[in-house]
Design brief:
Spore Coat Polysaccharide Biosynthesis Protein SpsA, Chain A; disordered N terminus; 6-stranded mixed sheet; alpha/beta; Nucleotide-diphossugar_trans; Rossmann fold; single chain; elongated
Length: about 425
């Protein structure tokens, strides 16, 4: 039998796959000097590249969020796969791995679970294009959230719909200069971002933490997208009523009813804020909204730029607030997904409000299905979570307060208010 070295030598060598490194830098701060070093090292190893000077987009996170749009444009203009390298990095050795990758996407998972967006690879494939498009929507929906967090959620979005061939880059291709190294660095990152963070050139908004389950799902590449979430994310605003604007077909003062239920305990967190319709009933100081639907959230930010809207994903912790409300959302949450959602949403709350049409006779299968429940169902669930039922309101829903909708079932919106026991 031929020796292994001879067998490897006899194997036909595949031609090197071409690629191009792309990056941008802000010319008005410390990144200009860093980018000059990156350019010098790329030229040293004869790596094709395109480094572009841009103006800062305000807070550091907003500039980083623009990375998704920049890469989408660079991908469209390139005839070969593109590789992103942060402008504050240097190439320490020939990055030959990029010549061998035959995947839609490549990324390194820092600490084994969290995407690192300092070095990225995007193949010239339709799946790569879909990933870039979804990443772009998420970054524009919530530019205060780190772009790598959005990328990981976008990866789950696309992987839940189609095959997305992913190559996991080794640490040597995303080595932080002062972190432990298991092997010599090929691409070293110098963490210029620490300076704007230290100097307060950021939004000041905290990043949403991950739950232990969220970390484990990401560590094991388990797709955490529920069928219901996947539907709303893929459909954008097509099934939200109204799709645009702040019309209230309920026929009563929704804002007054919610303020009464909140009883002065602000700010209030709205879980499932959609396009910001209910948010319009509150001042920016009174309110923070979260949603899994990036298209709806992008519309909400455009309509109410002073309000706080954060993108949400399964495996995140909800933002802190003494009161939380869920308005006409839980009827779209399946019975299996409801208990963990409520358990996570009530953490740290003193007051909790659930409002929607409550009557199981409204339940139906379909696209989308609806999972209406009776008030007693929610009262018992909240009791198990340590919350006591303290108040109820019922308001006729003008849109459904007519035949055939109101025949044989309750067409009113029920507001249930709970307090931590």
């Amino acid at each position: 039998m031929a020796p292994a070295r001879l067998m490897n030598w006899l194997k036909p060598k595949l031609p090197a796959r071409p690629y191009k490194v792309v990056s941008f830098f802000t010319a008005d701060n410390e990144y200009a000097a860093h980018s000059a070093r990156l350019r010098e090292t790329l030229e040293r190893f004869a790596v094709p590249h395109n480094l572009v000077s841009i103006e800062s987009a305000g807070p550091w996170e907003h500039t980083c969020a623009w990375k998704s749009r920049f890469l989408r444009e660079q991908w469209e203009a390139s005839e070969v796969p593109i590789v992103w390298i942060d402008a504050d990095a240097t190439v320490e050795a020939p990055p030959t791995l990029f010549n061998t990758i035959d995947s839609d996407f490549a990324v390194h998972k820092w600490d084994g679970w969290q995407f690192g967006s300092g070095t990225l690879y995007f193949g010239k494939t339709e799946a790569a294009k879909a990933l870039l498009d979804q990443w772009l929507v998420r970054c524009e929906a919530d530019p205060a959230t780190w772009d790598q967090t959005h990328l990981q959620s976008a990866w789950c979005d696309i992987s839940a719909q189609q095959e997305l061939r992913t190559y996991w880059l080794p640490r040597s291709y995303l080595q932080i200069f002062d972190a432990k190294a298991d092997e010599p660095a090929v691409i070293k990152h110098w963490q210029a971002s620490r300076k704007p963070k230290a100097e307060g050139r950021t939004t000041g908004l905290p990043q949403l933490s991950h739950t232990l389950k969220g970390i484990e799902d990401r560590r094991n590449n388990r797709l955490w997208r529920t069928p219901e979430e996947a539907f709303w994310i893929s459909q954008g605003t097509a099934h939200i009523k109204p799709e645009l604007g702040f019309d209230f077909p309920e026929g009563f003062d929704v804002g007054e009813a919610l303020h009464q239920a909140i009883a002065g305990q602000y700010p209030v967190l709205e879980v499932g804020c959609g396009v910001g319709r209910v948010a319009s009933c509150f001042t920016p100081e009174q309110y923070v909204g979260v949603d899994v639907n990036p298209n709806a959230l992008r519309q909400a930010r455009a309509s109410l730029p002073q309000h706080s809207f954060r993108i949400f994903d399964d495996g995140f912790e909800y933002p802190p607030a003494p009161t939380a409300m869920i308005y006409t959302v839980l009827l779209h949450v399946s019975d299996d997904a409801l208990p963990p959602l409520l358990e996570q949403a009530v953490k740290g709350r003193q007051r909790f409000i659930i409002a929607e049409v409550m009557d199981t006779r409204w339940r139906r299968e379909g696209n989308p299905p609806v999972f209406n429940r009776n008030p007693e169902d929610y009262i018992l669930m909240m009791q198990d979570l340590g919350f006591r039922f303290v108040a109820v309101q019922k308001h006729a829903y003008e849109r459904y307060d007519q035949e055939p909708w109101n025949v044989g079932r309750d067409s009113r919106i029920t507001f249930l208010t709970f307090e931590a026991a």
